[in-house]
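Methods: example folding runs. The two proteins below were folded one after another, and each record is reproduced exactly as written to the output file, sequence line first and structure-token line second.
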Amino acid sequence: MTDWIRVLIVDDIEETRMNLRKALSFESRIDVVAEAENGFQAIDFACKYKPDIILMDINMPDMDGIQATERISLKCPSANVIVISVQREQDYLRKAMLAGAKEFLIKPFSPDELIQAVITVYEKNKQRAVQVYAHQILEQGYVQSPKIITVFSGKGGVGKSLIAANLAAGLNQRNKKVVVLDLDLMFGDIAAMFNLKVKETIYHVVQEIERLDAESLLSYLYETNSGVRVLAAPLRPEQSEVVTGKHVEKILRLLKETHDYVIVDTPAQLTDPVLALDSSNLTLLVNTLNIPVFRHNRTVLEVMDAVNYPTDRVRLIINRADLDTGIKPKDIKTALGMEPYSLLPEDKYADLSINRGEPLIEMKPGSKWAKQMNKLIEMISAEDERSKSESWLSRFVWKKKRK
């Protein structure tokens, strides 16, 4: 899989930083996310920008590259440091490696040598990270009751993707392993919601679907700064045509092996891939106080009833519930035959959070919308705990009956 490689350049000389940036520009995969001019700034930027690779000059005033590398290895262990120096002595190499550096480059070097070092360190450590992650899951055995939550609406523009992204971010804050599957295959926005630059998507997963297992699927997921994983929608609309319901069924099954929650964002159509979500534990049906939205979602509920989808798995979410549209939340039960599960207010920061690619509950945790979203997440978590308890009790009773 081909990823973007996020790089932080650390050097006290501006010209050197400029030359390194220029050399890296010859590789399209590499994205220089920031430059630091001293060790203290490097530590701050490593935690702030979450780079994959840090190019660290060894000789800097105030705090040298060795000290900065040691602190970064403790505070931001996911960052891989490549130390750069004119010193050839083995002692420098030994100190750099003991501090946590993954590679040691001696000046002068060519752009090709620099790029190759960055790619090699990145690929090697990404493979190791995937193996460690999979091993931890197997060791801990905590993905015992994985849940699929689908966010759907019969009408677009109601805030499905906003809700899906924030639901994932909120569950992640509660120390759950969360992945978002973007099934809006033609025009999915989940990657943008997390400010992710993606090159591989569900389209590429489908090309390898016969050979994939849970561990190899992890390599196609992109991880956000906070730890949410994303399987992105295709980059081009025509690529959506190759994804079928059977593909989605297998992808969901594999994702459940390695995550506590699979959050599924969807288009406003009941397509073949979306219909494969019959295995969802919960469907959040998103509405706004708008008659066309009600009409479309009433049709959705009728279709669910026709195909015997259990309505007790459906929860009505009202987004922008405080807007004066002439319709009150109390009218919803009359229109749809269900009580609203959660009322989310209009929020002036919603568009800003979307444009920044930062979930609202992370960007503005004190906002009314974020507080209501957290209440929704608590309600969902409480339901999960009850279902786990009931499942345990039913197994216990069944065993007693067998005796």
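Second run, written to the same file directly after the first:
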Amino acid sequence: MSLYLIGDVQGCDEALGRLLGEIAFSPSRDQLVLLGDLVNRGPDSLAVLRRVQALGGAAQSLLGNHDLHLLGVAHGVRRPGRRDTLGPILDA
């Protein structure tokens, strides 16, 4: 079993997929800890969240400031920024 720690994915699902392939990550054998900022800035935050969810118990995530911002926008306590890429998540 290996433990991998990855930070600041920032909505870059393709890059995350390549990285997991490069390390030959296996959900049945390995553990992944995502160190915040899974979403925003990159082109496909929704796909990142879906990929992490599909890993089930093999993945854990800490919340970063972008993730907290998403929760605030989703609950109406923050306004989206003009450079945010959260729309697809909020529409899902």
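Comment on the second run: The helical segments are 13-22, 45-54, 65-74, 87-91.
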